[in-house]
Specification:
DHBP synthase; 10 strands
Length: 204
Amino acid sequence: MSDILQIHPDNPQPRLIAKAANIVTSGGLIVYPTDSCYALGCSLGNKEALDRIRQIRQVDTKHNFTLVCRDLSELGLYSVVDNSSFRLLKSHTPGPYTFVLKATREVPKRMQQPKRRTIGLRIPEHTVTQALLEQLDQPLMSSTLLLPSDEEPLSDIDEISQRLGHLVDLVIDGGYCGTEATTVVDLADDGYQVLRQGKKTFPQ
C-alpha cells in the first residue's frame, strides 16, 4: 500500500511537502488535491508514470493530459501565449480552469494532442498544490482522478487509498476539495471556445 501524507490544507508542513516532492522527482506517481478535485500527478517527462496514469484511467494515447503550473511565467515556458490569451489567463488564474494552448518544444510530444500539438495547462488555487509546485520547481503532469467505472472524481481519502493504494506511490490527504471538474477553455486558435463548463463558469 502507498503512504498517506496528511498535509494541512491551509498551512502545509514543509517537511511533508519535501517528502512528497522527493517521491515525484524519484519517478513516483501521486494523488494530490487541487482547487477542483483530487488528481493524479507525476514529474514532467516521466513516461512510465504517464503510462501508469493511462492504465489507471483506461485512456488511450489521444487522451489530453494537463500541465499544472505554479504561475503564468512557468505556464509561458510550455505554451504559446499571445497578448489576448495572456489577458484572459491573467484575469482567470489561479483558479479551477484548464486552458488549451499550443505547446512549445518544452512539452514532451507524448503529452501533446497529436494533430493540433496542443496541451492543457492550469494554475490551481490550492495551497498544498502551490507548495508542492514551488518545491518541485517544475510543473506536474496531471490527470483528474476519475476512474472508468465512476461518474465523479474520487474525493474520499479512505476510498482513494482502498482503490488505488497499490497503484500509486503516495496519496496526499489535503482534506475535502470537491468533485467538480475544471472549466476547459480552448485558446489555441483565434478567440476562445469554452469546451466544458465546470466548477467556475467562463463567459461564452
